[in-house]
Amino acid sequence: MTKAQERARARRRYEKREAARIAKEAQRKRDRVVVAVVVCVLVLVAGFVVLARQLSGSSNEASTPSGSATSTTVAGCQAPPSPLGTNAELSLPSKKTAEGKTFVATLTTNCGDIQLTLDGSKAPQAVASFNQLAEKDYWRDSPCHRLTTSGYYILQCGDPTGTGQGTPGYGFGVENAPKDGKYPRGTVAMARTSDVKKGNGGQFFLVYKDTELPGGYTIFGTVTKGMDIVDKIAAAGVSGGGTDGTPAAPISILRVSVTEKKG
């Protein structure tokens, strides 16, 4: 064998070894990519499993109202549902639908029924709004988000978000506000912002002890049945202590029905 042949043979052996090395290195790279993809898939699957468990648990477990530190379900109350929230963008109804009329409203809550008598003669706009929101099921599964226990004594409800910031998409002015600022036990009045012309919306409060409030708030009804429920919630106090905040004993409006009182 000539030297030229030997050199050619050696080159072929080198090229064969080099090709094998390159192929082996390429296989290693492919293996590393496959492992990385598998790890990513496993991480994503684990994340979806955890999320699914959290979502399924949230629909079955009692929820604590927004902003509360502690909560205690009192005797006679069921665990409250989770707030549904709202994207309501409704229009203000005509007050003529309530003028000169009296209505009976039933707040069905997780603690029992609270019955209200609504006075469309003295506060027609507030009553017309209340009736519309009840008809639209606006308050379904909405927590009463605020309780005060010193200075003034109210249980505030009517915000489907449970934050105190929810509105039905419209506002209206104050009606039938007492000149002396006195709100007797059993009063049903509109909660509002500082805007006396358009500050009323969907939130209202129930007075469980004689109260004086400055500024003027629309009185549009009275509690005729179920004050014992409000008293029970008030007696449990504010979540986490204090005198103004989320009720320690959660209460939610499940639905509201309204009928006109004849005669």
From TrEMBL:
Residues 58-86 are annotated as: Disordered. The chain crosses the membrane at residues 33-52. It comes from the Bacteria. Residues 112-258 form the PPIase cyclophilin-type domain. Residues 62-75 have a biased composition (Low complexity). Keywords: Isomerase, Membrane, Transmembrane, Transmembrane helix. InterPro entries: Cyclophilin-like_dom_sf, Cyclophilin-type_PPIase_dom, Cyclophilin_A-like. It holds the Pfam family Pro_isomerase. Signal peptide: none annotated. One of its GO terms (molecular function) is peptidyl-prolyl cis-trans isomerase activity. PPIases accelerate the folding of proteins. It catalyzes the cis-trans isomerization of proline imidic peptide bonds in oligopeptides. This is Peptidyl-prolyl cis-trans isomerase B. It comes from Nostocoides japonicum T1-X7.
